[in-house]
Known about the structure:
By secondary structure, the chain is an alpha/beta fold. It contains 17 helices and eleven strands. It has a five-stranded parallel sheet with strand order 2-5-8-1-9. A two-stranded antiparallel ribbon has the order 3-4. Helix 10 crosses helix 12, helix 15 crosses helix 16 and helix 16 crosses helix 17 (339-349).
Amino acid sequence: MLSLEEQESSQCLVVGAYAMQAALSTIPYFSKPQANRGSAITISPFLGSSEEVQKILSVVYCIKDSSISVLLTGPSGVGKDHLARLIHSLSPRKDKPFVVVNCANIPETLFEEELFGFKRGSFTGADHDKPGLFEIAFGGTIFLDEIADLPLSLQPKILRVLQENEFRPIGGNERVNTDIRIIAATNQNLEKLMQEKKFREDLFYRINAMEITIPSLNERREDIEILMDHYLNALSDENQKPKPQLSAQARQKMLDYPWVGNVRELKNVLERLILFAKKGMIEEEDLALQEVRQIPVSIPLVSPTLKTLEEVENEHVVLVLQAARGNRSKAAKILGIGRRTLYAKLGKLR
């Protein structure tokens, strides 16, 4: 395993800013947003001027031409998926598929079917061949997100594919060759899980040829303003809204705010502000950030005007859905929840 600290002495890390910026400028989402790009614009950057981010980008530049397996670690919301896409976009595999596998969301009973595919007639209802994600990703990159949640019973099967570069579809007699690059991500301590016998040691070392840890946004606060300005531009374009301005007080409040949810929380807050901005200016009172973290002690515990948490949540869900013009996918993204969760909440309102 090569950690960031072990890589610092490498000559490759002494890469000039110009070389890295030249590489990044070839990727659409590092270019300046343009109005005529509409919904095609990609707003998944890994940006920052902090020493931590520059160190990460230097390592990414060093490995960009290789197929080394990478393990991305760090808290939820720091942008591990964004960095995975960046690594893929800089690699020789950039024109091949980038396939995301969320290990926490696929039911264990369907995992083999999703990853390895199946042959016609292999089980009831299998009336056609279905390629698995490993086959779809041929020549490209597989991103195993939330890999710590991969069921222990399935870990040997994933390991076998990574070791032998082949797999057999369900109901198939012949093995299928695969050529993929593995990038995995987790917000959990895999070494601790290994000690608890919840994660295989051999799989850990297979995916952990290079580990990159992304610090929380609070550990690189100088990046907040860069991210704010980027998302104000990109999200306004994506939502086809005029870009609002932040008052000096509002900007300072956001810079001082403890972004516990990291970049994901910052992005969601800015998208809500863009959707509800009325006069093209976001004032400090529009942010309502502190109210999320603190409950004023002066409010009486019992009052006929107070609402239950469920009532407040339901009203907010309806408000966001209206702002998204009934688009449930967009509403779920703004709320920071999955579509299934949103459907469940809407079902309770009926």
